[in-house]
């Protein structure tokens, strides 16, 4: 069976209630292929999750941008997987490079989070990707394989995982990986999964690309057979100011 195209919008730490409502209004009015063809998931900051969920058209879904690594309790400032499940939030983004770099989330910690979130019934957008220095040193594949391995060592069922290849150097910079660069890493990741997880997972998992995706470059990127969608940061917020980059859909 083919892999359903996946488009995620990561709003990061942005927005006011008015702006968020405006984005949702624009999204709801957008012309999007049927949910049988494209899965659309938007990820507002935690505080806006309930309102966004309540206002979005029903075929669009929401994702949290993070959750705690284990059962909630005395962890000030954290939000648990159980809470997300309780609010019927189906998805969570884990391992985003901003959290890895700025908050020191290690591969193992991200792997533990992925395993815990899945065990609670959440679906996970698991982010991996190399820095510019790592790419220039020729270690891109080692880096993403090590990040993926930390997840693979902790989970056995990949059916609720979308793997987001998000090289760090194009995130928020306007530099986009070329379609060939994205395709190359996606293919290598599939080979890694084939050899280290299973041929079934390698064939069925959606590997999406993130890093300065916009209406202007998405069609070219999406034309690659191993690019199964996008995680869009900055451009997913542009609707605040103008219109949805329709090409993304
Ligand atoms: C992201 O942060 O997930 C992302 C891809 O950001 P941008 O599209 O702004 O590069």
Name the bound molecules.
Answer: phosphoenolpyruvate
Query: Spatial order of the strands in the main sheet?
Result: 1-2-3-4-5-6-7-8
Structural class: alpha/beta
- How many strand elements? 8
Beta-strand residue fraction? 15-25%
Q: What is the end-to-end distance?
A: 21 Å
Radius of gyration from the CA trace? 17 Å
What coarse outline follows from CA principal-axis ratios? globular
SSE sequence, one letter per element: EHEHEHEHHEHHEHHEHEH
| Major pleated sheet | 8 strands, parallel, barrel
Task: Provide mean pLDDT, rounded.
Answer: 93
What share of the residues lie within helices? 25-40%
Number of helices: 11
The unreliable regions are 240-249
Polypeptide structure, described:
With 249 residues, the chain is α/β, with parallel strands linked by helices. Helices cover 39% and strands 16% of the residues. The protein contains 11 helices and 8 strands. The chain has helices at residues 17-29, 49-55, 81-86, 97-102, 107-119, 132-136, 140-152, 179-196, 199-204, 218-222, 234-237, and strands at 5-10, 38-43, 60-64, 91-94, 123-128, 161-165, 206-210, 229-232. Strands 1-2-3-4-5-6-7-8 form an 8-stranded parallel beta barrel, surrounded by 4 helices. α2 links the parallel β2 (38-43) and β3 (60-64). α5 runs parallel beside α7 and α7 crosses α8 (179-196). The two termini are 21 Å apart. Phosphoenolpyruvate is lined by residues 10, 166, 170-172, 210-213, 231-235.
